[in-house]
């Protein structure tokens, strides 16, 4: 048995320097766009699922419940595999990027639905009644009175969802999207310097998430100023 | 008759809250409802605005008729609801909108009044309730009494046939009550038809044309303020009034 030896750590600075840009570039042209596009579609889907869950129609409620349960009860990696490697068996073929967008959007749709539902329910019943007494219909109260207030409540949890999503995009490497992590992987194929390259990948993810959490704090501060304190 | 409610019944689950209430009011008159906590005053008031749907009885406001025995469509509910407007105990202002935005919301969004015209009218109403200078503030920046006056302005801006008030001053600090009551007195003097739940007996004595005493889901006694306050017929009314007077 080989003894555990902490070898000399020698950093290959030229490799570190030359690999940094391709890895960052993968982040900028794939990871971030993938996260943003999936988040937008995902939120739309989540809103739909939240409204179905809140509707008084049993079938709609049930359908949304099943969808949310499946998304939350299965690994994202498997969802990606089904969409990219499985659906071609049914004649549905999509590019890796589109496949990743579909899988990630559906995933966000399942997770954020409960967040949105909870934030809608957190708006006091009296707000609905105030809208009704003005003569508004359900849609008007929802859009003009309830959702703006629910949006404020949901900024912190949805920001966390987005930051998780940025990290989850690394799974798109498994369906050949040349995003941040796959760039690092590709370079290891010739240089074999796993520790250096994967650390670099980690560093770039961390920088992205650090910037995002700063933006999150900024948004929350701004919203706090106008939120009612009952 | 501007308002005519007949034989209103309302239950929540097993408990019967309103057990056949009749109510009527002429245009320009003020009706005050008093009664013990839990007797059904709020439920009755909310039924007039169809925030609660009674399971039996009829309601007619401004010639628009609803029969609660039948299923009402959303359109029918809305049509009778917009004849009246509610001022809530907890004001229920929209926290994300300024005072002015709160007041123009109904006229602009529901009644499709032109925004500039709605703003002009809203400013005038805010002036009447003493809040012209606060139009660009958010509700949380105001005192409880100011918030409630915005609530009144928001209801008045709809120009409904009937104003409904559910204990509009009972959540306020005593020193803030007078300003709200003054606004309501002005409305009465200007000919608004109002149904008011309140335990401000002095105010009721002044503005009410009729007072009803609600007890355990029925109207036990009604009359003009002098009759009801000075010469109540029922023992329960007497006991209730003496409790209220002691509290002050
Ligand atoms: N939404 C509701 N669900 C169940 N019970 C209710 C509801 N609203 C009111 N009640 C009950 O109805 C009774 C009358 O309430 P309310 O009309 O608010 O009385 P008041 O305004 O005279 O104090 C109370 O016992 C209350 O608990
Ligand atoms: Mg009440």
Automatic annotation (TrEMBL), chain A:
Residues 28-216 form the ABC transmembrane type-1 domain. InterPro entries: AA_ABC_transptr_permease_3TM, ArtM/GltK/GlnP/TcyL/YhdX-like, MetI-like, MetI-like_sf. The keyword Ribonucleoprotein does not apply. It comes from the Bacteria. The keyword ATP-binding does not apply. Keywords: Amino-acid transport, Cell membrane, Membrane, Transmembrane, Transmembrane helix, Transport. It is found in: Cell membrane. PROSITE patterns: ABC_TM1. Gene3D superfamilies: MetI-like. It is a multi-pass membrane protein. The chain crosses the membrane at residues 28-54, 66-87, 195-215. NCBIfam families: HEQRo_perm_3TM (TIGR01726). Belongs to the binding-protein-dependent transport system permease family. This is Amino acid ABC transporter permease. It comes from Sporolactobacillus shoreicorticis. The lineage of its organism: Bacteria, Bacillati, Bacillota, Bacilli, Bacillales.
């Amino acid at each position: 048995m080989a003894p555990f030896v902490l070898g000399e750590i020698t950093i290959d600075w030229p490799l570190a320097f030359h690999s940094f840009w391709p890895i960052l570039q993968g982040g900028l042209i794939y990871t971030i766009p993938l996260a943003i596009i999936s988040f937008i579609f995902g939120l739309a889907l989540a809103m739909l699922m939240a409204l179905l869950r809140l509707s008084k129609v049993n079938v709609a409620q049930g359908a949304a419940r099943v969808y949310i349960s499946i998304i939350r009860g299965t690994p994202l990696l498997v969802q990606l595999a089904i969409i990219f490697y499985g659906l071609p068996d049914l004649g549905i073929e999509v590019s890796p990027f589109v496949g990743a967008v579909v899988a990630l959007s559906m995933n966000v749709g399942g997770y954020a639905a409960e967040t949105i539902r909870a934030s809608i329910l957190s708006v006091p019943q009296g707000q609905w009644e105030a809208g009704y007494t003005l003569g508004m219909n359900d849609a008007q109260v929802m859009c003009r009175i309830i959702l703006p207030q629910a949006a404020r409540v949901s900024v912190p949890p949805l920001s966390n969802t987005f930051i998780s999503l940025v990290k989850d995009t690394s799974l798109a490497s498994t369906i050949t999207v040349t995003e941040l992590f796959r760039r690092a992987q590709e370079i290891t194929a010739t240089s074999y310097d796993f520790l250096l390259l994967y650390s670099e990948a980690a560093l770039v993810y961390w920088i992205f998430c650090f910037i995002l959490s700063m933006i999150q704090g900024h948004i929350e501060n701004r919203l706090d100023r106008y939120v009612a304190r009952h | 008759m501007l308002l005519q409610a007949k034989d209103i019944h309302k239950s929540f689950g097993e408990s019967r809250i309103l057990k056949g209430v009749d109510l009527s009011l002429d245009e320009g008159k003020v009706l005050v409802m008093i009664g013990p906590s839990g007797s059904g005053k709020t439920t009755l008031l909310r039924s007039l605005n169809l925030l609660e749907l009674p399971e039996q009885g009829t309601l007619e406001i401004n010639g628009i008729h609803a029969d609660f025995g039948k299923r009402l469509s959303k359109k029918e509910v809305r049509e009778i609801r917009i004849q009246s407007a509610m001022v809530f105990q907890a004001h229920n202002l929209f926290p994300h909108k300024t005072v002015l935005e709160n007041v123009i919301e109904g006229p602009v969004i529901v009644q499709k009044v032109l925004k500039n015209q709605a703003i002009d009218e809203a400013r005038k109403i805010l002036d009447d309730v003493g809040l012209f200078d606060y139009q660009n503030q958010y509700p949380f920046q105001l005192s409880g009494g100011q918030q409630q006056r915005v609530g009144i302005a928001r209801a008045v801006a709809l120009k409904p046939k009937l104003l409904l008030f559910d204990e509009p001053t009972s959540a306020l600090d005593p020193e803030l009550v007078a300003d709200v009551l003054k606004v309501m007195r002005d409305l009465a003097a200007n000919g608004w038809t109002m149904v008011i739940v309140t335990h401000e007996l002095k105010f009721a004595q002044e503005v009410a044309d009729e007072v009803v005493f609600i007890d355990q889901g029925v109207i036990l006694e009604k009359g003009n303020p002098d009759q009801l306050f000075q010469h109540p017929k029922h023992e329960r009314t007497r006991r209730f009034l003496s409790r209220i007077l002691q509290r002050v």
